[in-house]
Amino acid sequence: MPTSPASSPVRTAARVLLGAVLGFAGLSHLFWAREEFRAQVPTWVPLDVDAVVLASGVVEIVLGVLLIAGWRRTVVGWIVAAFFVAVFPGNISQYLTGTDAFGLDTDNARAIRLLFQPLLVAWALWSTGAWSAWRRRSERARPTRAA
Q: Using a CB cutoff of 8 Å and minimum separation of 24, what contacts does 49-55 make?
């Protein structure tokens, strides 16, 4: 039995697109948008802000490459979803502090952005088949009832 569910062309395209988006975002952390990303690191993070931006950029590049390559899709899907959850406090902090970055210069714009983070999590889980694989494993593990 395969460890990853079969992928449709639409899921594959969505996974590759998400990988490209992550790779692009990671490169922007390292090169042209470092200041914008620095604005998203919450003040309560006890690490050097630039180190956080650089490290998260490298992580995004690696995750993007893994998504594009399709290596261990379901595992990578869960890791990418967890990454999106892990960086969410930065988006919340940007909203709460009213920090302008990436053209988000109003509270409404920053609030709308918050709504998109769960969509990124769902995109990662759906496009990699991670959610489907988990549901199938859960169904197989469920005891069957006698009729």
A: 53/29, 54/29, 54/30
Q: Is the predicted pLDDT of residue 2 greater than 60, yes or no?
A: no
Helix (DSSP H) and strand (DSSP E) numbers for the chain: 6, 0
Q: How far is CA 114 from CA 10, 25, 75, 94, 140, in A?
A: 26, 17, 25, 10, 35
123, 14 Cβ separation under 8 angstroms: yes
Beta carbons of 53 and 29 less than 8 angstroms apart: yes
CA 57 – CA 17 distance, rounded (Å): 17
**Number of C-beta neighbours around residue 74 at 10 A:** 19
- pTM for this prediction: 0.85
Give the pLDDT band (50/70/90) at residue 147: low
Model confidence pLDDT, tens digit, residues 95-111: 998 888 888 889 999 89
Assigned token pair, 6? 């079969």
Query: What are the angstrom distances between the C-alpha of 145 and each of 119, 134, 140?
Result: 36, 21, 13
